[in-house]
Inverse folding.
């Protein structure tokens, strides 16, 4: 607990003989003001190190820290602002692992191992057949002591050694040699990759740096980490907590991958194949092959592509990835497929007449019709949209003169042409001679 740690931190190595009397407290405490981590970050950013909290109040935290060889007493408010900064002495040499080993040996500990971890020195040792973990700051102040178990037991098994190493801050542990009388393992500590030689009781006899380790990855940036490992088309499935789950492509395979918090692929399972990138110039055709109709490309110059299309009666907005991954969002409804009566009505409304229609298998229509005096062929899709109109001939009809002359040639006399229609909401009949001149008008009555 932080209250206990603060009290212990006041005990310097000058009184190290009293080390054995320090016992862990099991009482609960409440942290007032900023947390230790917040205070450490705030002061570290201003060049301070070896930070020790000496007193906590409701609004002011008092602490000691070193900067450029000088030791300061600092008072910080709950907003993380330094209210006073008073030099109270100088800071000596930084406390090292060998200093912790020497001090513990002097206090009666055996089987001692110690290492520097960030701004602390953590050491393990045995005394009175009990194993303890002691934590010092870099000024040599003892800030914590925890009992770990008993010493002098039988040899630890690899899983027990792994657990012990994890408790000491190591991770990504891989055994190179797990046969007694010793163990050899590689592990990460912070950003350093180290080789460890461990005795049968879990004591680290030798530690050697052999490389670097990647720190924890931001789950929102897993994709770049996996791309460095040869994956592409990375899609996050679960990134709330580690291990994470993603889907990605590698060597033509679509895989489901379990990823550690350090960005390492722990396992992968093939779930399908990965296709070739979509040609943006053929985007509409590629979407139609997926079963969509009435495809309208809204954005085809960059990924993700944006397309509007129909599927059944639904109008969908499609977000399409570079390799054809599709996400649908319904944005409306599409008109029902056209029947023949609908098609004829559409043609008449657009000024076509004398149509002949042939239904195609996909629900569209091939049409030949007249438009003014031109005969055309065209296609109507299943949603009533016209396309592919081509001139194929003329639609010349007989004139009034031709019609009347033909009747007279067949023996008719006094031939007149009549036309009935509406004019100003009334029904009329007009008469015309063979030259198209109007010869009369008769109101028939009734409204149109």
């Amino acid at each position: 607990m932080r209250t206990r740690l603060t009290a212990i931190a006041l005990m310097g190595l000058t009184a190290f003989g009293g080390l054995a009397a320090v016992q862990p407290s099991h009482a609960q405490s409440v942290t007032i003001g900023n947390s230790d981590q917040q205070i450490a970050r705030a002061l570290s950013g201003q060049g301070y190190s070896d930070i020790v909290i000496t007193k906590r109040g409701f609004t002011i935290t008092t602490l000691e820290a070193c900067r450029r060889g000088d030791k300061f007493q600092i008072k910080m408010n709950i907003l993380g602002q330094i209210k006073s900064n008073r030099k109270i002495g100088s800071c000596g040499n930084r406390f090292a692992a060998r200093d912790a080993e020497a001090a513990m040996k002097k206090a009666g500990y055996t089987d001692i191992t110690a290492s520097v971890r960030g701004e602390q020195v953590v050491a393990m040792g045995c005394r009175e057949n009990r194993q303890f973990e002691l934590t010092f700051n870099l000024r040599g102040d003892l800030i914590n002591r925890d009992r770990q178990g008993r010493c002098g037991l039988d040899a630890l098994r690899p899983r027990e050694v792994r657990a012990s190493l994890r408790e000491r801050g190591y991770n990504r542990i891989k055994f190179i040699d797990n046969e007694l009388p010793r163990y050899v393992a590689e592990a990460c500590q912070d950003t350093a990759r180290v080789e460890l030689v461990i005795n049968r009781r879990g004591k680290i006899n030798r530690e050697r740096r052999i490389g670097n380790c990647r720190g924890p990855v931001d789950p929102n940036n897993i994709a770049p980490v996996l791309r460095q490992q040869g994956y592409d088309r990375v899609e996050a499935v679960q990134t709330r907590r580690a291990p994470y789950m993603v889907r990605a492509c590698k060597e033509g395979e679509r895989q489901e991958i379990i990823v550690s918090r350090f960005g390492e692929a722990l396992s992968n399972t093939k779930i399908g194949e990965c296709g070739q990138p979509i040609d943006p110039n053929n985007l509409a055709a590629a979407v139609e092959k997926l079963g969509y109709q009435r495809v309208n490309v809204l954005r085809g110059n960059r990924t993700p592509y944006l397309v509007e299309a129909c599927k059944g009666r639904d109008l969908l907005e499609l977000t399409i990835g570079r390799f054809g991954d599709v996400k649908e969002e319904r944005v409306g409804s599409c008109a029902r497929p056209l029947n023949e009566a609908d098609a004829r009505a559409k043609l008449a409304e657009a000024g076509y007449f004398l149509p002949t229609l042939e239904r195609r298998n996909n629900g569209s229509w091939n049409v030949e019709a007249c438009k003014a005096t031109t005969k055309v062929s065209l296609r109507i899709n299943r949603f009533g949209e016209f396309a592919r109109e081509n001139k194929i001939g003329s639609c010349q009809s007989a004139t009034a003169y031709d019609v009347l002359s033909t009747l007279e040639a067949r023996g008719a006399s006094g031939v007149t042409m009549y036309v009935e229609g509406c004019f100003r909401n009334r029904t009329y009949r007009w008469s015309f001679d063979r030259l198209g001149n109007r010869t009369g008008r008769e109101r028939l009555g009734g409204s149109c």
Summary: Residues 340-394 form one domain.
